[in-house]
Amino acid sequence: MIRICMVGTGYVGLVSGACMADFGHDVCCVDINAERIAGLKKGVIPFYEPGLDKLVTKNVQADRLHFTTSLAEGMAAADVVFIAVQTPQSESGEADLQYVMQVGAEIGRLMTGYKVIVTKSTVPVGTARHLDRVIRQAQPKPVPFDLASNPEFLREGSSIEDFMRPDRVVIGAETEQAGNLVREIYRPLYLLETPIVMCGIETAELIKYASNSFLAVKISFINEIAALAENVGADVSKIARSMGLDKRIGAKFLHAGLGFGGSCLPKDTHALVHIGQEAGVDMAIVRAAIDRNEELPRRAFAKAQRLLPAGAGTVALLGIAFKPNTDDIRAAASRPLTRLLLDAGLKVRITDPVAMPMFREAFPEAVACASAYEAASGADLCILVTEWNEFRQLDLDRLGAAMKHRAFLDCRNVYDHARLTAHGFTYDCFGRPAPRG
Ligand code: NAD
Predict the structure, then answer these.
(1) Ligand 1 atom closest to the CA of 122, numbered from 1
(2) Over 70: is that where the pLDDT of 199 sits?
(3) What's the gap in Å between 207 CA and the centre of ligand 1?
(4) How many domains does the chain have?
């Protein structure tokens, strides 16, 4: 059993902490957000993540998972301290490290014995060196410690499964002792023969950005092919399927539509471009992927304008979370799309199974609705933005009956021309032009 302090109880910190407790370790999760910690002590999960409530309750009851606002308390008995706080995109594109460094300074101030300090947050190359200086400067008297980097690859919506059955675990460490201690945390994964990649800290830091940027490039690539397919009468979904059947390519992240969003791919691609600039390397491929992605809400808006009958004024948005099974709307494509629709003077009615509270705050002028059918009431166009399961199985007659005009923009390529036109809708999607004739 290893004693772990997890600093930050967001998506990554809370899921990692709960999973590590489930591995059998003693985990104390720390957050400066007192409301969040008070809620967690009562079993209230601060965001939507399937299965997390049960995992937290189980490990709290087993006395392996604890919550506190006091870093001193969290660190007191810890062998390893993970930093899992946010690293948002700053105005100039690079990762904002202020939260990581604040935690580093506090750790330095409180450290009384050897600890391994691990960055789990996604941080640019060189952050560990910077953190090392910050910790040393904050120490009242020198206390030995080691740094390590253990980037996280979990995805919101399936994060527990991702953490418990990862494709790989990456551990960058400056000493063998630190690397081995972090590796020991993941011992339960040996049974699954999970590959554990041991490397230097800089390599670990860059692996995370390289992986996320590659996924972003894959999505933008298929969206570029979708734009081309539309103009030449080809079907991107068949192209993607055939490409994906090639084992060298793989089927995942080849879905054309509104592109990537959320708290990771947009900011991590921007950060990698910035890291490249600092290191004198133009990350031209990643820049192109960002540009392609950022134009997609405008493409959706142009399609919406073409579908709307003249003088029409109401649009129903189905789904606003950046992907299904999460309430995260950070950098979701729904945001610029909603802004474009509202700025064009259209009325926007929106619905999402879990993300409505977040969206209401961001767009108070949009009308919040409890279901797709309520959102469609009196609308001239329905736009499917997030492919939640309940939007994949719409009763199209009921939807159409609620609407003023039957028009449907399918930003995730869930439906098809034949089905929608059979129900009297005009229909458009991404990269799958209407069959000729
Ligand atoms: P988040 O914003 O959901 O959570 C961060 C938490 O840290 C918040 O609860 C905040 O109150 C807390 N915090 C901030 N400063 C603190 C301090 N000084 N002391 C204690 N707590 C503090 O962030 P997240 O989505 O969990 O992401 C965390 C990191 O993990 C980021 O670097 C992100 O890029 C990376 N990451 C995120 C995901 C994901 O899917 N969300 C996946 C992989 C990696």
Answers:
(1) 32
(2) yes
(3) 19
(4) 2
87 lines ligand 1 (CB under 6 A): yes
Last residue of a domain, one of 199, 223, 249: 199
404-428 pLDDT per residue, tens: 999 999 999 999 999 999 999 999 9
Instruction: Calculate how far, in angstroms, residue 43's C-alpha sits from the geometric centre of ligand 1.
Output: 19
Alpha-carbon span 248 to 244, nearest angstrom: 8
Q: Which domain holds residue 295?
A: 201-437
242: pLDDT strictly greater than 70: yes
Q: Which atom of ligand 1 is nearest to the CA of 36?
A: 9
Concerning whether 264 is annotated as a catalytic residue, the answer is yes
* CA 121 to ligand 1 center in whole angstroms: 7
State whether 383 and 286 are in the same domain. Answer: yes
Which stretch of DSSP H or E encloses residue 100? helix 98-110
Domain match, 195 and 238 both = no
* Residues 131 and 153 placed together within one structural domain of the fold: yes
- Do 206 and 333 lie in one domain? The reply is yes
**Measured from the CB, is residue 13 less than 6 Å from ligand 1?**
yes
Read off the pLDDT of residues 54-86 as tens digits, 9 standing for 90 and up. 999 999 999 999 999 999 999 999 999 999 999
DSSP for 306-366, please give it.
HHSPTT--EEEEE--SSSTT----TT-THHHHHHHHHHTT-EEEEE-TTTHHHHHHH-TTS
